[in-house]
C-alpha cells in the first residue's frame, strides 16, 4: 500500500474514511500516525485539547513540577554544590516553566503535528452511532457523521474517579488536572490517595512550599510496586515535612469559610486550603455511544492483543480505555500495534502471529515499565515478587541495597535506595526488576530490555555496567543471586 | 570443590598456594575473590595501595571531582533551581569530598576486604621468577618466594605514558595521578591529550576555577567514540571557558621561574602553572619478571578469551595489562572470567565452550561499555560506525537528536545531545550505541543489555521506554531506522 492523500479514496463522500480515531491524546495521535503511514485515510476527533491529558494535565506538567524537586535533591547530595541549594524552590519560576511545557494549554503545535500526518482533525465530541460510524458534535452544535471503512479506534482515555462523598462537588476538590495545572501554591494541601499521582503531587507541592497531609487508605504508598518502594518514598516524604497518615479513610469533607475540613474514619480532623483526590481512574467511555453497538457505557473495554474489542471486528480500544496499563508510553505502544494491525487487516492479510509480533501488544503482559518521579525515584518493569507468585511463576527474588554500589555513593552523599530482581527459576530469565533511589529513572530501561528480550542471567553476566555508575547495581544483583 | 582455609592444603610449605595474584587493584581483588570462592588457596601481592589505581588515582577520585560539575550543570538547566547555582563551585568542599572518597589514600578498608575473602596479602613488589613462581620483595627488602600450583595472575595494570620530550621530568608534569589527587586548584592548567582522561580532567579543573588550555594532537576529542561525541563535548568545554586547540603537538616544555612554558608545532606558546599529560597508557609489566618466562618486559600481554597468556598454561594476564579494554569494569569482568577458568581447570574439568560462557570474556569483543563523565556525558557500548565497517559488518547507522525527546527537554532546558545506533543488517541486532547528553550515563546499560543479549530490533520495539524519560530516545532511534 502506498501513501495516498487523505480522503481522496472516497471522492463521493468526504466523511467516509478508512479509519476514524476518537480522542487525540498521544494514543489517538499514534494510531493515526500509523494508519496514515500505511496510506489509510484517517479522521481524528477531539473534544478538548489535541495532545490529551498527558500533554496538559499529567505527564508533562507533572514532570515539569517534579524535575526541579529532584534536581534540588540531587544537588543537596553533592558537596561543593549543596550549599547553594539550601533555600526553597523558586515556586513562581517553577510554575511559569510548567506553564510553558504545558504549552499554556494551547494545542497549536499538536494540531500541526496531526495535520502533518495527513489525518483530518474534527473538533467536537465523537460518539459511536452504530457499527463503523462516528457522530461528531462540534463546538457549534453542528453534527457530522463519519464512517470508517476499516476501523474505529476509541482512544478517549480516563479521568479521575472521585469517591461518593456527600457534598464533595461543593468542596471543588483538585483532581490530577488541577494538581498539575494550579497557578499558585496552596498554604496547606490534603492529598487523598497513595498511588503514583498522590505521591508525585505530594512530592511536588510539598517542595513548592505547601504543607502537605497525605491520607492513604492502605497500609503504604505505591501499592502496585514492591513494598520497599512505598517505604522509601514514604520515609523521604516525611523527612521533607509531609504529614503521612496511612490506614485512613476520608468519611466527610466540606468547606468552612473557604477552608477544607476533612474528617477520617479514625475520627481525626484535618484542615487545608485545597484537597486533591488521587483515588483512581475511570474510563472516559460513558458518553461515546457504546450503547449503539451493544457495549456498556462507562465500562473499561475488553480487547485482544491487537487491541481489538472482543466481538467487534471493526472496533479498537487503545490506551487507558482498555485498562491494560494506564500509562502514556504503554498507550503509545498499543497505538503502534493497533495501527499496524488495522493496516494489515485492511489489506486482507493475516496478522503476524507470536507474542512479540508487530501486531501483538505482548509487553502489556508482564513487561510494563513505570517511573515514579518522586524523591527518591521509583522505577520498575514487569512483575513484582507478589504478582509473579500470584501468576504461578516459580520465582526467586534477590535484593540489593544501593549502599553496595560505589556509583550510587558518588552520585549523592548518603544515597539511599534498593533494588530487586525477580528471577524465574525455570529458565533464569527476569520476570521483574524494581529500582528505588535517586537517578534510577533512566536505569529501568536496561531492565525493560532484559525482561522483554528474555535475556537469561547467564548472558546478563556479560552485560558489564560501567564503573562507577549506579548501573553497577546490576552486578550486585547478579552476585546476590549467585551467592544466595 | 568446597571452601578450605587458606594455605591449609600445604602445611609443609606456607608459601605454596593454588593461585598467586600480582596486583591488588579491583582486577586482582576480583580474581582472588573468585579463586577463594572456589576453595583455592590464594596469595595477593601488592607494592602500593590495595585497591589500585581506580580507587585512589582514577575512577573514584575523578568521579568525585566531576559529579559536582555535572550536578551544577544539571541544576543550571532547571528553572526554580538554576538561580541558586550561578556562582562558582566550592572548590575546597569538592576537594575535601574527593579526599574522603579516595579514603585519604589509605587502604585499610580494602585490606579488610581482601582478608575477608580468605586470601593472604603480601606487601611488596611481585616478580615472576620462572614458571608458577613469584618472588616478593617486601618494603623492608625481605624476599619471599611464593609458588602457584595452578595459576599466576598478573593484574598490575597500566601507568600514564609520557612523551619523549627533552627535560620533561624537570617540569614535574601531572599525569592522571596528580590530576585526580591534586590538593589545590592551579590558576592555569594545560592539558595535553584529547582522550577520556584529558576531557574529564579538563572538565573538572575548568569548573573548579582553573583556566584550562587543551592541546590536542588529533582533529577532535574522544577519538575512539562516534565523532559527534567529541564535537558536543568540545563545544561545551569551550562554552565553559576552556581554550581548545586541536591539530596541535607539543614540541617543547620547560619551567621558567615556576611557570610551565609550552611551545607547539604551530609555533604557539602557552604558559600555565601546571601541565597534565594525558597521552596514553603503558603496561606495568616492565618490572614483573616477564623475562624469566620468555616474555618481553614492558609489553602488553596477549591472552585468549579465558585471559590466559598465549603459550603459558599457568599464566593469566587480567585487566589493563592485556590491552583488551583499559577500563576498571571490563577488568573486573575479565577477573570474574579468569577466576572461574582457573578454578575449573584446577579441578581438571574442561571449560564451558561458547562466546558467552562463564569462562569466556566474550564482551571484550564488541560489547565494551564506557561512560565519559564530562558535561555533557558521553556513553557508548560496542562498535562505532567506523569500527563496525572496519570489522567488515554490513551495518547502517541512524542518528537522533535529543531535541526530539520530551524527557530530555524536561530534564534540562535547552538540552543538547545526540544518539546513534549501529544496526547489523544481517540479523538486525545492534553492533553499537552511543548517547551524548546530560544524564545519559545510566542510559547506556540499556544498550549494553541489547548488544550483549543480541536482542533484535523487532523485539526492541516491545521494550517500551517510560514517558517522559530521556530513555525515550530508544523509540526515536527505532522510528528513525524504520523510516529511513
Structural account:
Two copies of one chain form a homodimer. Chain A folds into three domains: 170 residues, FAD/NAD(P)-binding domain (3-Layer(bba) Sandwich); 112 residues, 3-Layer(bba) Sandwich (FAD/NAD(P)-binding domain), CATH 3.50.50; 108 residues, Enolase-like, domain 1 (2-Layer Sandwich), CATH 3.30.390.30. Chain A is built from 15 helices and 21 strands. In chain A, strands 1, 2, 3, 4, 5, 6 and 16 form a seven-stranded mixed beta sheet that branches. The first copy, chain A, has a five-stranded antiparallel beta sheet with strand order 17-18-21-20-19, sandwiched between helices. The longest helix of chain A has 19 residues. The N terminus of chain A is likely disordered. The interface between A and B is large, with 83 and 83 residues.
What name goes with the CATH superfamily of the largest domain in chain A?
FAD/NAD(P)-binding domain
Output the radius of gyration of chain A.
Answer: 24 Å
What oligomeric arrangement do these chains adopt? homodimer
Q: First CA to last CA of chain A: what distance?
A: 55 Å
Number of strands of chain A: 21
Structural class of chain A: alpha/beta
Tally of alpha and pi helices of chain A: 15
The number of domains of chain A is 3
Uncertain spans of chain A:
1-11
What's the CATH topology name of the largest domain in chain A?
A: FAD/NAD(P)-binding domain
Largest sheet of chain A: 7 strands, mixed
Helix content of chain A: 25-40%
Shape descriptor of chain A reads globular
Greatest contact between two chains: A-B, 83 and 83 residues
Q: Approximately what portion of the residues of chain A adopt beta-strand conformation?
A: 15-25%
